[in-house]
Task: structure prediction
Amino acid sequence: MHSRTSDLPADPGPWAGGAGRPGPAGRPPGPGWPPNPGPPLRQTAADGLKIAVVGGFGAGKTTLVGAISEIPPLSTEETMSSAGVGIDDPATSGAGTKFRTTVAFDFGRITLDEERVLYVFGAPGQERFWFLWDRLFSGTMGAVVLVDTRRITDSWYAIDRLEHLGVPFIVARNNFGPPGHSLEELRDALALPPGIPLVDCDARKRHSAKRVLVTLVDHLLTFATDRETLR
Amino acid sequence: MTRRPVDSGVPDRLYTVTGGRSRTQDTTFDLVTIVVGEAEPALGMQSEHIRILRLCGRHPTSLVELSSHLGLPVGVVKILLADLLAAGRISARHPRSAAPGAELLPPAETLKKVLRALQNL
Ligand SMILES: Nc1nc2c(ncn2[C@@H]2O[C@H](COP(=O)(O)OP(=O)(O)OP(=O)(O)O)[C@@H](O)[C@H]2O)c(=O)[nH]1
Ligand SMILES: [Mg+2]
Result:
């Protein structure tokens, strides 16, 4: 790696740690802040893989990402103009009705080996988000639909979109309390075909989050193996 | 997660950052493209370019992490990275999944490695 120039103002960067960086909303630097940014990528990192966790508001997406990630979940956003969203037809609406839409999402990462690093994205499952799928999430190998059983209907749309996009997925029920129904009852309520895995999880627990991802990749492996034996 | 009119302050700032461009010519940048700094930040460079070179000069850094650390939307970071790539100041390691003709699913061999790595976490 090259050395830094000394004639530019110092910028500690996310891995510098320690004091100096401002806290959120003016919070002064202190113990516990800034949070440990986690390890940087390896020098040999070369192939990023993507998994998306989609679900309704408060379904536990960020919690699940954080439980399994080697860095504290980070967030960012993408913006798009109304033309891309398809809300307004520029031919029929004046300039004053144009909107810019912002979709926020968060993510964590898991270093898999010298070269591969897996990014896990927590993404809102609502309608607006899916317009960004092709731009941001093409190449996603698979998805987890995280279901909050208090709001099952939130998941219908996500399942519908993933089926439409042809993205393989599994469904995980995040239990905020003792489950009131069996997984088979939930499968019926979601109209989920028998071949799609449906599992219980506690998004706060690392081993549970890990099991969710293992279930997904195992499912993907079945597809890939079938595909290769058909050749 | 909000809809706001185009003429609010934030888009104006982004317009300035990207020199008025709203779309990147280089569409090969993926959310998980890994960026490596290949040059020193230099005085006179645009401040966002300097910040990017500082971040990815020390360690390879993915586009989405750059976006988060810079506090700039993904699309804006793609434009800034296309500038730096054209100037030879960074190199980019694009994901195999974005290669032309790549299938939706990685090969079984890759998935087995992913599975093993996850099981060993
Ligand atoms: N009891 C319980 N609480 C949980 C569980 N998972 C998440 N929570 C809590 O539920 C709340 C929402 O979780 P988040 O991870 O922020 O959910 P989210 O899907 O990222 O929410 P949005 O991004 O706002 O849509 C948080 O207060 C979590 O601590 C769980 O398995 N059990
Ligand atoms: Mg969240």
